[in-house]
Amino acid sequence: MKIKPGYMIREIAKNHVVVPVGDATVDFNGMITLNDTGAFLWKQLLEDNTVENLTSELINEYDIDEKTAKRDVFEFVEKLKDADLID
Amino acid sequence: MSFYKIADLNIQMECLKKMLQERSKKYFSSEISCADIKIDMDNEKLENLSKRYPQLSLNELEYIYTGCIFADNIFDFNGFCLHSSAVALDHVAVLFSAPCGTGKSTHTSLWQDYFGKDRAVIINDDKPALRFVEDAFYVYGTPWSGKNNLNSNIKVPLKAIVFLEQAENNSVRRLDAKEALKLLINQSLRPLANNEQKMEKLLGLLDLLLERIPIYKLKCNISTDAVKLIYNVVNLKT
């Protein structure tokens, strides 16, 4: 799975912000803000990636236990699916 | 070939229809010979647009289309257009932004009633241009000011941006960066096509803007009290 094309992630005024570029603007007016973990996972998902790999990347990056990492990844991916930002 | 000086940029543009001709008159310049931005329009293009948008007159189509092209090109010159009514009081600019129908123009017209039209000048009633030049943000009038032909060919330093919301009672608060950014992105004229570079420039400008310019939310009714409240908070007294 990976982030659909047509979105940009940037840091603005110390916030991680995702905005649509071009055609995506039609379905998605405005922006979403992500916390540090969300931004980290988003960047991992710019290339095709798996839940297992995201979980281990998250453990490496933030030094958290596997259970927490699994839960964080699951919740984030579900949110992206709900918002139709991923395929 | 005709040239116009708009937002301190050299704009090359032929005006085919009366509406654009009249509204761009005060920006005409005979001293320019090379263009920063070229806005191409001819009768054939206008006819094609008319087939796509038959509900609009040729006058309106030319006016709206050229305004979009201008807004889409100003990103290359450290600028963007914000959907707002911009008022200059004693040569300092405050922008009032909100979704259509909230009462931006109504509010800035109250400024003119209260301070007088000599002191309170409408820079642009709908889509002023903002540029970061000489290490500061400036607001410029442009010919593209929405349904009212209310714009002045002036450059004024930006003091504050205020997002309006209708309310029974007047209140104001300063927005944090996250709240302000959301509203700014919604009301900025964004790049037309899938253009990452231009989007990047817009986001860079918004980042800079949030660092330098205070952004407020004004909940207000249609009254002089609302004007006085925001005037005092923004602190325009120099």
Number of domains of chain B: 2
Radius of gyration of chain B: 18 Å
Structural class call of chain A reads: alpha+beta
User: What is the count of helical runs of chain B?
Assistant: 7
Query: SSE order of chain A in H/E notation?
Result: EEEHHH
This entry's quaternary arrangement is heterodimer
Helix content of chain A: 40-55%
β content of chain A, as a range? 15-25%
Class by helix and strand content of chain B? alpha+beta
Order of helices and strands of chain B: EEHEHHEEEHEEEEEHHEH
CATH class of the largest domain in chain B: Alpha Beta
Number of helices of chain A: 3
In whole angstroms, the N-to-C terminal distance of chain B is 43 Å
Trace the largest sheet of chain A across and list its strands.
1-2-3
Helix content of chain B: 25-40%
Shape type of chain A: globular
Instruction: Round the mean pLDDT of chain A to the nearest integer and report it.
Output: 90
Characterise the protein shown here:
- The complex is a heterodimer of chains A (87) and B (238).
- Chain A contains three helices and three strands.
- Chain A is globular, with a radius of gyration of 13 Å.
- In chain A, a hairpin with a 2-residue loop joins β1 and β2.
- Chain A has one domain.
- In chain A, α2 crosses α3.
- Chain A is an alpha+beta fold.
- Chain A starts with 6 loop residues before the first strand and ends in a 5-residue tail after the last helix.
- Chain B has 238 residues and is α+β, with helices and mostly antiparallel strands.
- Chain B folds into two domains: 75 residues, no CATH class; 156 residues, Rossmann fold.
- In chain B, 35% of the residues lie in helices and 27% in strands.
- In chain B, strands 4, 5, 6, 7, 8, 9, 10, 11 and 12 form a nine-stranded mixed β-sheet that branches. In chain B, strands 1-2-3 form a three-stranded mixed β-sheet, with helices on one face.
- Chain B is globular and about 50 Å long.
- The relative contact order of chain B is 0.15.
- The model of chain B has no long low-confidence stretch (mean pLDDT 95).
- The chains are: A alpha+beta (87), B alpha+beta (238).
- The interface between A and B is medium-sized, with 17 and 20 residues.
